[in-house]
Specification:
Cytochrome Bc1 Complex, Chain D, domain 2; binds heme C; 136 residues; mainly alpha; 5 helices; 0% strand
């Protein structure tokens, strides 16, 4: 590739990568506000409250926080939390796991997406990274 083409192409690739990171951080920051309003009465990132803590929830086995007293409905669900399953959960907890101790139906898909972006930002190997929103 000639240097001029590389300059153009690499510039485009770099700027899309950067704007993607910025967009993800923006989503997580917006999701954090929603989380504080709609989840933090019962949840925190690092402490079990009425509900279990959320650090690393994306990728975590369902109902697996040690010492937290889950309902049998949630324990029976099996598998791990993915963004898609969290979306299903927040759409209707009682539809996904009838008899669960959490009652919530969020109809707004955009709000669900932003909250899940926040949960992703406190999950994974770089969960304390500077591009991410800090936990409440
Ligand atoms: C009124 C209290 C309450 C609110 C508000 C609430 N939760 Fe929960 N949440 C719970 C309880 C209780 C459980 C445990 C459910 C069970 O054992 O059946 C739970 C479980 C969960 C789990 C499963 C965790 C695991 O370890 O498997 C996720 C994920 C979750 N909540 C996300 C959220 C999110 C995101 C919000 C905000 C949109 C939210 N919750 C709002 C009480 C609440």
């Amino acid at each position: 590739m000639n240097p001029k083409a590389c300059f153009l192409l690499c510039g485009v690739l770099m700027s899309t990568t950067i704007s993607h990171r910025v967009a993800a951080a923006d989503d997580a920051a917006a999701g954090k506000v929603l989380y504080q309003n709609q989840c933090s009465a019962c949840h925190s990132v690092d402490e079990d409250r009425i509900g279990p803590r959320h650090r690393n929830v994306v990728g975590r086995k369902v109902a697996s926080v040690p010492g937290y007293d889950y309902s049998s409905a949630l324990k029976m669900l099996g598998g791990a939390w993915t963004p898609a399953r969290l979306d299903q959960w927040l759409s209707g907890t009682q539809k996904m796991a009838p008899g669960s101790k959490m009652y919530l139906e969020m109809d707004d898909a955009e709000q669900r997406r932003l909250i899940i972006a926040f949960l992703e930002s406190v999950s994974g190997p770089d969960d304390r990274g500077t591009t991410h929103a800090s936990p409440p």
